[in-house]
Design brief:
Layout (H helix, E strand, L loop, with lengths): L1 H7 L12 H10 L6 H11 L13 H10 L6 E7 L5 E6 L5 E7 L6 E3 L3 E3 L8 H5 L1 E4 L2 H14 L8 E4 L9 H12 L11 E5 L3 H7 L7 E5 L5 H7 L8 H10 L8 E7 L7 H11 L4 E7 L13 H13 L4 E3 L32
Parallel strand pairs: 4-7, 7-8, 8-9, 9-10, 10-11, 11-12
Antiparallel strand pairs: 1-2, 2-3, 3-4, 5-6
Helix pairs in contact: 2-3, 6-7, 11-12
The structure holds S-adenosyl-L-homocysteine and iron/sulfur cluster.
S-adenosyl-L-homocysteine (SAH) binds next to strand 8 and strand 10.
Amino acid sequence: MVENLRDTVTPPPPDLAALERSALEDALAARGHQRFRARQIFRWIYRRGVTDVAAMTDLPVEFREQLAREFTVTSPVLVHRERSVDGTEKFLLRLADGQRIESVFIPDTPAMTFCISTQVGCAMGCAFCLTGKMGLIRNLTAGEIVGQVRVLATALGMRDTKFNIVLMGMGEPLHNYDETMSALRILADEHGLALSPRRVTLSTVGLLPALERLAREPIMPNLAISLHAPTDATRGELVPINKKYGVSEIIDACKRFPLKRRNRITFEYVLLAGVNDSPADARRLAKLLSGVKSKVNLIPLNAAAGIPFERPSDEAIDRFAKILADHQLIVSVRKSRGRDIRAACGQLIVEGPRKSPAQQLAVML
Ligand code: SAH
Ligand code: SF4
């Protein structure tokens, strides 16, 4: 009986907007179509933002009809859009199964930046992060990760504008490794958006096995490590996964990480008053990073209800930054963008049916 049941289940049609080009070529060939059609379909979906197969006018009409029968095209649906006084825009998107995520546009950093999610929620449970409080609801697919970029580029009229991508929205990208990397390959495809991996920054808490795997990828984004403390004692309190992958192992992996000339690993450091912001912490951090091609991005905590920490005073932030600079480190202090619309780092969380869901927002300087 079970066998019979299995025979009758037809798999759902593949999604044209979720496949890498090579997989799309295979899917087309398996249905008796020419492989080169994948290039045309990529141009329509990613360059022109057209997802209605019937409107892909350089494809033969009969082929378009077959495509519509044999494939689907799924896009996140834009539910709500909110603009901050500083120009940051938060987009609430609904996925095919009803889950909601947010993506953020941060203008003039000086680049234009899209902050993109890789998961609904996050399993890592960092103590200062609202997304961490949600737990992991599910991974996003490559199509949903790239879909955020498509929807933002169209909504902002930016399909012909260069932009950067930071994987600093909701979720831990290396905890959803395969779909995240597949999304980067789709974004980089020469017949699609042709987005250079240099324009992409992946931010991670440092899942070591995945980090080692990333080091061997042909498509290599810029790397940002969420460090937040120079010792295992403090980091272990803030970032639970540190108990598995500790500070010195992460730093060693960073030293081995293949970097292009002039490229550096960014170390993100959320500053928490009285927890990790002392001059001694700054000196320990400087020592830890000596010998790493690094730059440090200090992120004063974005406080929120339910987060048991406080943002340090401006004086404490400046003092911390100065000690790092005095030790020859490159330091920047992240400006908090979009705070009035709860789009800043760590301010985002799915709060229930009435409110916007939310996700981590990344903010480049
Ligand atoms: N999961 C990945 C990427 C998403 S979080 C990571 O942790 O790196 C993006 C950045 O926002 C991380 O550096 C994270 O530590 C920071 N962040 C999280 N909560 C924050 C808060 N409340 N205030 C300031 N930054 C926060
Ligand atoms: Fe997850 Fe990053 Fe938030 Fe930690 S800071 S809980 S890894 S999203």
